[in-house]
Amino acid sequence: MMSPDATPSPDLSLALADGTRVPAVGLGTWKIDRAETPELVHAAIACGYRHIDCACDYGNETEVGGGIHRALTEGLVRRDELWITSKLWNTYHHPDHVRAACERSLHDLGLDYLDLYLIHFPIPQAYIPIEERYPPGWFVDPDVPSPRMELAPVAVSETWGAMEALVEAGLVRQIGVSNFNVALIRDLLSHATINPAMLQVERHPYLAQAKLLRFCDEQGIGVTGFSPLGAPSYVPLGMATAADSAMTETVVQDAAHHLDVTPAQVLLRWAVQRGCAVIPKTRRVERLRENLALDDFALSEAQMNALDLLDRNHRFNDPGVFCETGFNTFCPIFE
Ligand SMILES: NC(=O)c1ccc[n+]([C@@H]2O[C@H](COP(=O)([O-])OP(=O)(O)OC[C@H]3O[C@@H](n4cnc5c(N)ncnc54)[C@H](OP(=O)(O)O)[C@@H]3O)[C@@H](O)[C@H]2O)c1
């Protein structure tokens, strides 16, 4: 097992269609408490992270920006060595609102450009002005009894045109999508002037998404796997149980034992070895190092294949389920 004092190398990277390289391991920031965020982001950069995954909806971009600012000020890293992703929230899909939403994320993060800006979900929702509520979340009005989502009729093509304008304006370097399926991406490619550089989707051994990866590879679209550890992120939300964790699978435990690494490292290495970036979230400094240290071991072809066989097409983060249970609104997107 890696010593907690070992300095991991951030050398693993993923090449995008235009040759830009994305650090293959990033820090996820969903559900990191705002109070803990600046220190954690600073610690992540100090121990070698060069990729941070953010979003308006996570409600902590100001605090992420605080950690980045401190690291930049201390000279730990240069801005051009960092890869910062943010995401357009559902309520800003109308082209009139895309630039203001991006500028708010830039302001909060304290940056003058993003490396990557993603459409967070293919779920356009009714506009909530930034000055009225930020981040707006899922409800159109959280203060009524039984609050609901309100969808809005905005075509992906309209939103994408405004995303392309952000690249032209120099606010973002690359644009992409999240939680999109093949059919939506195929449609997007039919009209895009700037192709999506990246797709971010849930991906772990229980949701291997082999056909989606193959399609993205054919189209020159990079893939980032979110929730790469599977169940643990969803246990506190009541959307999974500890028993759903792939880390307890015998093939994962055996590989971890054989390679003298942790089960989490096996899952993350499996993703990276299949050509994906991963953005594991942790609020624990010792796990920051563990999750980044994936470049000094490799899974054998037999171990890779054994992990592939764990696939059961199980999605923990499914709007078709959580929008109904959490937000009183039936909103399937993958069916
Ligand atoms: N685009 C989207 O719609 C979308 C959706 C979900 C997530 N994301 C992004 O993807 C990131 C990662 O996904 P996620 O946060 O859902 O899940 P994750 O990174 O797969 O898992 C996080 C959970 O695993 C635990 N953990 C972290 N490292 C561990 C280790 N080495 N050993 C054991 N447990 C470990 C964490 O606990 P501790 O914090 O206590 O360590 C936390 O409970 C998010 O933070 C977010 O940036 C995007």
Structural overview:
By secondary structure, this protein is an alpha/beta fold. The chain has one domain: TIM Barrel (Alpha-Beta Barrel), CATH 3.20.20.100. The chain has eleven helices and ten strands. The protein has helices at 37-46, 61-73, 95-109, 156-168, 182-191, 210-219, 250-259, 263-273, 285-292, 301-308, 319-327, and strands at residues 13-15, 21-23, 27-28, 51-53, 83-88, 114-119, 172-178, 198-202, 222-226, 277-278. The strands form two sheets. It has an eight-stranded parallel beta sheet. A two-stranded antiparallel ribbon has the order 1-2. It binds NADP nicotinamide-adenine-dinucleotide phosphate. NADP nicotinamide-adenine-dinucleotide phosphate is lined by residues 28-30, 53, 120, 178-179, 200, 226-229, 232-233, 262, 264, 279-284, 287, 290-291, 317.
Secondary-structure map:
Elements: E1 13-15, E2 21-23, E3 27-28, H1 37-46, E4 51-53, H2 61-73, E5 83-88, H3 95-109, E6 114-119, H4 156-168, E7 172-178, H5 182-191, E8 198-202, H6 210-219, E9 222-226, H7 250-259, H8 263-273, E10 277-278, H9 285-292, H10 301-308, H11 319-327
Parallel strand pairs: 3-4, 4-5, 5-6, 6-7, 7-8, 8-9, 9-10
Antiparallel strand pairs: 1-2
Helix pairs in contact: 1-2, 2-3, 3-4, 7-8
The chain binds NADP nicotinamide-adenine-dinucleotide phosphate.
The site of NADP nicotinamide-adenine-dinucleotide phosphate has 26 residues, from helix 9.
